[in-house]
Amino acid sequence: MRHIFFSLLFALFFTILVSPVSALAAKTIHVLASTFPIYQITRNVTLGVDGVELDLMIPAGLGCPHDYALTPQDMHKLAKADLLVINGLGMEEFLGAPLKKANAGLQIIDSSKGITPLPMREVEHDEVHDAHEVQHETGHHHHGSPNPHLFASPAMAALIAENIAQDLAIKYPEKAEQIRTNGTAYSKKMRTLAHKMKQTGSTLRNNRIVTQHGVFDYLARDMGLEVVAVVQAHAGQNPSASEMLSIVSIIKSSKAGAIFTEPQYPEAIGRTLAREAGIKSARLDPAATGPELAPIDYYQQIMQANLKTLVDTLGSR
User: Fold this and answer.
1) How far apart are CA 207 and CA 256, in angstroms?
2) Cβ contact 151:160 at 8 Å
3) Is the pLDDT reported for residue 133 higher than 70?
4) What is the per-residue pLDDT across 60-107, written as a single tens digit (0 to 9) for each?
5) Kindly report the CA angle at 15 between 12 and 21, in degrees rounded to 5?
6) Cβ–Cβ contacts within 10 Å for residue 290, how many?
7) 88 dihedral zone (left: phi>0; alpha: psi -120 to 50; beta)
8) Is the Cβ–Cβ distance between 40 and 287 less than 8 Å?
9) 83-86 vs 107-110, strand pairing mode
10) Residue 261: what are its φ and ψ, rounded to 5°?
11) From the CB of residue 213, how many other CB atoms can be counted at a distance below 10 Å?
């Protein structure tokens, strides 16, 4: 009995010594996504991967966190995370010093890495000087910081998925094959969706549109649409009376087909502009927000609905 006891004890110590990789593989990796669209893409990349616990930092219904301030709950999530997947391109400027305070050693995956961004629209209404001779004090069309709203275009969502899968596979090599397989599969779905949207864009009767703000710039580019103006030069900042007159003038001179507002913002101003300019208004969803328990294919559902809205509003040839 004594001999058997020591033999079992030796076997136990030997297993512990030679199996550090197995012990590491069993460790749960806590992955935190900064925003809802990045969370949804990361969900697809990590689908069915054992040992990955994914959480969303900010509320799913918040939208783009342009002026967000971290809450104690956010700080707690950051403190326990091993990896943070971010949108990048300045979307998470609110993190800054609080991130270092919460978790100085937190590893970050920038989902926008290597993607060439469009510049953010700062002032959209200053290119047409109509009979009202509207003057604008500052800004120029398409100057300033990079536009961070890559996620609103399926073509860009494909690149985001590939970036997340590549970096996550490196940081979690035990599950690299499954992560890369998921990333490739989701990227393929996004490319198929992007191709369908581009084809539809080429058949629209009118491809000139007005949007709420710069969130649809990538989608418009990838579908062959022309954004002639935006309702808000900055998200959440309503246009002045003179700017509204200028937008109406641009709509008429460019013969735009419709104004598209977003579910994250009130649509009253968009409807008013559409009525004054004599064009249609409708809602497009950039998928910046969603339900707390969104289905895994929520993004595809939203983009398919957007596609129908575009055709119904702008018509097809």
Assistant:
1) 8
2) yes
3) no
4) 998 888 778 899 999 999 999 999 999 999 999 989 888 889 998 999
5) 145
6) 21
7) left
8) yes
9) parallel
10) -95, 180
11) 26
Most confident of the ranges 10-24, 142-156, 161-175: 161-175
Contact indicator for 313, 257 with CB cutoff of 8 Å:
yes
Three-state DSSP state, 211: strand
User: What tokens were used for 267?
Assistant: 């649509």
> Does 278 have pLDDT greater than 70?
yes
CATH fold of 27-110+117-314, please?
Answer: Rossmann fold (3.40.50)
Q: 186 and 72 in contact (C-beta within 8 Å)?
A: no
Going by C-alpha positions, the residue among 197, 198, 195, 170 that lies closest to residue 183 is 170
The confidence band for 122, taking pLDDT boundaries of 50, 70 and 90, is low
Global pTM?
0.85
Taking each helix axis from N to C terminus, what angle separates 298-314 and 154-171, rounded to the nearest 10 degrees? Answer: 170
Q: What is the average per-residue pLDDT within 142-155?
A: 87
DSSP 88: -
Q: Where are the domains of the chain?
A: 27-110+117-314
Helices then strands, each counted (H, E), the chain = 11, 8
Q: How far apart are CA 64 and CA 270, in angstroms?
A: 20
pLDDT for position 86: 97
Query: CA–CA separation, 126 vs 217, rounded Å?
Result: 18
Note the pLDDT tens digit of each residue in 166-186: 999 999 999 999 999 999 999
Give me the sign of the Cα torsion angle 84, 89, 91, 94. Answer: positive
Structural contact between residues 294 and 268, judged by C-beta atoms closer than 8 angstroms? no
